[in-house]
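Bench notes, bay 3.
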Amino acid sequence: MEEIAKFIMAGRWRAIGLAALFTLLGVYFIPVSIISGAIIGLVALRRGPWEGVLVVLSAGIISWLIFSMLPPKPGFPFPLSFALWVPILIGAVVLRATSSEGKMLMSVGGWLTLYVLAMHWITGDVVAFWKSWLELAVANVKGATVYGFEEEGTLRLINSLVTLLYGIGATTALLLARWWQAILYNPGGFGIEFRHLQMPRWLIAVAVGVVWIAGTWNKILMVDLMVAAMVLYLFQGLAVVHFLVIRYQGSWFWLVPVYGLLLMLPQFSLMAVAFLGAVDSLADFRGLRAGNTES
């Protein structure tokens, strides 16, 4: 990873070329899009927002020109990396200015809220929108239909799932960028910063209020906004777990079941870890507000 970070920071065109490459690879293997976003984040963190914007524009033009020559993928009119770049740039600017991963995470949460509201306002009916999108996406897949999604009620949750993955992808890219930066310029600094990730208590009151108000108007909007809030507290919950492992001098092996459950049983473990993060915002398990730190 250190060599990748060094390569990115060795020159502007290296960063542009690598961001474009991973953007195009992300067309065929979506998780790779996170690496493209992390490259943008690293440049913005180290060299400032305008350099990040320059890399975004240049890599965007290159990847778009090549993407337009590739065989079309129904339902994907542009590389998904493009959707990550704006919240990543905003988050990187916030993190660069404040050195607070909590505030960075709040900026991602603000962007997710805008995404949810925009989707409901622009489409008028997000369930109908995602149904149309699925019909287009499976049109060339033999035997595939959207009937199963309708029968199981999954269509009503697709926008929430997209919000969840969008937030996790953007935040993971930002954390990867911060880790790369720490490897090159502040060894060991990332771990300390992440374990002290914390958001203010008042944010829970705001989140609950917004979700409640949305629920009085539109239940699907309420769930979408609840998921956006869950993304924030998911990462705070992970920070608590990492902190406790270090505080009690536990082996890193204790993190394996946590991340294993997140991958294998996300429908339960995501909510559990997010709940831990939300409770920590109120109870302050780590004693951060009192100024305590791990030894």
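Next record in the batch:
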Amino acid sequence: MTIRIAMWSGPRNISTAMMRSFENRPDCTVVDEPFYAAYLAETGLDHPMRDEVLASQPQGWEAVVAGLDGLPGPVVYEKHMTHHMRPGFGLDWTTGRANAFLIRDPAQVLASYVVKRGEVTLDDIGVVRQAELFAREADRLGHAPPVVRGADVLADPAGTLGALCAALGIGFDPAMLSWPAGRRDSDGVWAPAWYDAVERSTGFGPPQDRGEPVLPDDLRRIADAARPYYEALAGYRLTIAPPPGELPRSG
């Protein structure tokens, strides 16, 4: 039986590092943002390397799902961007996945996003869509699906990934904590535009979020609009039980 994991994230989180982590498991195949071309074709948006992305993947959501469903392996890890799931794209296929949600404070996301792409909207950072997908999955399951905060992974990779693996129904593998530097054949064709930092990495670095960033007014309005959705998701995030005799970790 293949365990298929759909990890739903917004941009400028640690989503690619998480993909590296799972790919370093000997039992796992990873897929990098399979709906990216379908999203660009549907929206007509101009992203870095747009033509290359469109040529590299199916542009219809049904064809994307058919390709995902055909991937073999004990574990398949699908890295998804929530904003790629447009309203017209079907979602019934997600019931065959263990769905999880990777979150980051929207102000931190925006401060990082504008370094790579100068224009940004609330839709671009995917927080609202992430909350919608979470609510849909929670309603289906009858309980909250796993939510992981990127800062928690960076602060305690073994503990947080261990809790995530347990919630997904797979064993934790210490191989998830480090990986060789460099590009992967599994990386999307867009890697040269976005993955420079992760290509230099060999593991999870120190926590990135150091205080509230100073944002211009237009980005602050977006962050403020996104914050209620982020806070609602953060209320369900996985926490690590402390050893006996220790106080719980705050965060």
